[in-house]
Amino acid sequence: MPVDPSRVGTTVGPRAVDWTERDSLLYALAVGAGQRDPLAELAFTTENSEGVAQQVVPSFAVVLGFGEGLPDVGEYDPTRAVHAEQEMFLTGPLPARGRAWATTTVTDVWDKGRDAIVWTETTLVDAGTDRLLARCRTGAFLGGAGGFGGERGSSPSWELPDRAPDVEVTVSTRPEQALLYRLTGDRNPLHSDPAFAARGGFARPILHGLCTYGYTTRILVNELAGADAGRLASVRGRFTRPVFPGDDLVIRAWRTEDDSEVLFRTTNSAGEPVLDRGVVGLRPGTDGGGR
C-alpha cells in the first residue's frame, strides 16, 4: 500500500505548543542527563540551584514540534514506520518555558522501491515575539509503502577523517529508558508494547530514535560547546539500526579545520552505527573540552 506523493505541500498548523520548566527538566532526564553524576548537569536537570541558570537540551526543539506524528500521507503499515533521519536548526538557546506556534509541512516523498521515506519540516515560532526558534526536518521510513514511481531522493556527501576522534564518550541507557522518554510526548507503542513491537519484527520494544538523538546532542553540547547549549546551531543524523533500552551508546566526534562544524557517529557497544552521518554546527564561543 504505497503512500500518496501528491501530499507534498500539505501543511498542518499552526498549532499552539506550550511548555514549562518542568517539561524541559523531564526531557533532560529522559535523554540521560545526570545519570552518571547527578551533580554534573544541574543546568539541565534543575531550575533552582544556586549560581546555576537553567538550560534546555537543544534537541527538545524536535519534541516540541513533533505533535501527533506524521501528517496524513496516505496508507502505510504503522508497525513498519521508523524514524530514518533528523535535522535540527536553532536560532539560539531554547527558553525553559514558553509558547510557540508549530507548523508542519510535507516537503518530500521518496520512492525507495518497496519502501518510502517521507520528509516533513516543522517550524517553531515564538508566540510572543514572532521569532523563529527552530526548524526541524524529519525523515520517516515507511516499510512497504513505496513503488509509486517517485524520486528516490539524494544524500549529502559525508566522510569521517582518517584519524582518532576528538571526542569519545560512552554512556548507558537504562532498561526503563523508553518508558521515561515516552512521557515527553511520543507514545508510539513500538517503544512500550511487546506485542506491537513483535508485529514490527522486534524481539522487544525498542528505544525511540529521538532518545538516542537527544543523548547524543546532550553529550556533544557538553564536550564540544563547554556545556553552553546556546552554542549549538544544528544537528543532523541518520538512524541506522535499533537501540534497545539498556544498551550502551558510544559517541565519537571529529572537529573540522575551522571548528565551525563537527562530524559524529553514535554506535552501540559492538561498534555498529546506530546514529550515523552526523553533522553538528557550532556557534563561536569559548572552546569546551568537556566538563
Description:
With 291 residues, the chain is α+β, with helices and mostly antiparallel strands. The chain has a single domain (5-282), classed as Thiol Ester Dehydrase, Chain A (Roll). The chain is 16% helix and 32% strand. The chain is built from 6 helices and 10 strands; from the N terminus they run E-H-H-H-E-E-E-E-E-H-H-H-E-E-E-E. It has helices spanning 21-30, 42-45, 60-64, 177-181, 194-199, 209-224, and strands at residues 11-19, 81-90, 98-111, 116-126, 132-142, 167-172, 232-239, 248-255, 261-267, 273-282. A 10-stranded antiparallel β-sheet has the order 1-3-4-5-2-7-10-9-8-6. The chain is globular and about 55 Å long. The termini are far apart. The relative contact order is 0.17.
